[in-house]
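Amino Acid Chain and Its Fold in Token Form
===========================================
Purpose: to set a sequence beside its fold so the mapping can be learned.
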Amino acid sequence: MRKTRIGVLTFSDGRDFLKEPLVEVNNRFMEALKTRLKEAGYDVVAGREVVWTNRLAAKEATFIRSQNVDLTIFNYAVWAFPQFTAIAAKFAPGPFLLYSNINPQYPGLVALMAASGALDQTGVDHRKLFGSLEDETILQRMFDYIDAAGAVSKLRGETYGLYGGRAIGIYTAVSNTDQWMAEFGIDVEHVDQLEVIRRTEQIDRAKVKAAREWCEKYVKKIHYNGKELTPEKLELQIRIYYAMKEINEEKGFDFCGIKSQTELTNNYCTTDVPEAFMNDPYDFDGPKEPMVCATEADMDAALTMEIFKHLANTPVLFADVRHYFAEHGILDLVNSGQHATYFAAKSFDFKENLAKVEFRPEGIYFPAGGASVFHLAAPGEVTLARLMRVSGQYWMAIVPGEFVQFDDALNEELINQVQDNWPHAFCKLKVEPEEFFSSYSCNHIHGVYGNQIDKLIAVCELLDIPHTLYA
């Protein structure tokens, strides 16, 4: 996955007799900032000169813009004339983070506050941060904002591949393409599902057979039953995966969604296996970048998942809000075979995950049959979220929680009460279920392991989208 690329400009005093005396301190603090950012895994492009004149402000900011950065950090180690920041902000690409390290001998904080005031008065949105680079709390706040800005930047120019159209009447799965371009910079290209089926006939037989045998080797159990699930049916699902992967690469899709229901699920097979492995960090041929793929062609699901992917650099969950077990205080998140197998063991090692995965036959909802990718999500802290719309206006629900498991007998009992052939995630919420159900307005929800709350809030701020935190 592409690293977030950060531009850094350091500002100084505009008096010529202070230029040389301040070189050492400016360079020292600039290098410290660059080092910390690079250690965290970011690409960093610094200005070629410390900015201490109006002309340098425009020149260096223009240089930063030419480097295709995702955001710009304005760095203050000493007093700097605020006008330089105001000018630089007209050329450098936002979002802007104004930062000053701890340096009491020089008024870097004063410079930051004055520059922030200048940007406020000239209508330039920004965030400011003051504190030591040795303070982990300060660093995390910086990284959260950088990751959020990077995620928003990476959305711009992406293309969503929409296979099919609205599935089984779900209004919340369909978004306006013009709104996506206006608000997120994302284009949408439609592909008919018939094109996927046509291409399945062209996939190399030996390649498909090898993929099926790979599944038979590593998946815990494949429940062939001679009807809904046969080797031939599994191979058709694998062919659909390869056909979609081929189209995605040809058309330059960055993420995608497929309708599946009801044309494919009634007449060919489900797309559970393709969806699961598309979202996984590996497939039958080895490691790969996860490709967000939303079932039921749910566009806002895919968009939420793509944001999560850019923030966490992991596969992202797609699930239905299926059932609440009041006696156990858990929300059961379930959706056909959509869960990436990654969630079975929370591992990037396919062997660890697939050892906990079963391919089970599809049931009454999908007469064409196929394999459902069954497992129970591994325990751990999670952040769930969903972009939704009210009268055309986006808002984001942010739902912190924890995936849990019980003993084997209770796990099986709960699963059997709901759906014994689909994947499950048992989630404890941080809020009372009544509060969640009263305002959460979609059947689908998405998430990743870990705490992504502050990053998601920053994403909402950058996109000017309101959010509700269910905590």
Observations:
- The radius of gyration is 25 Å.
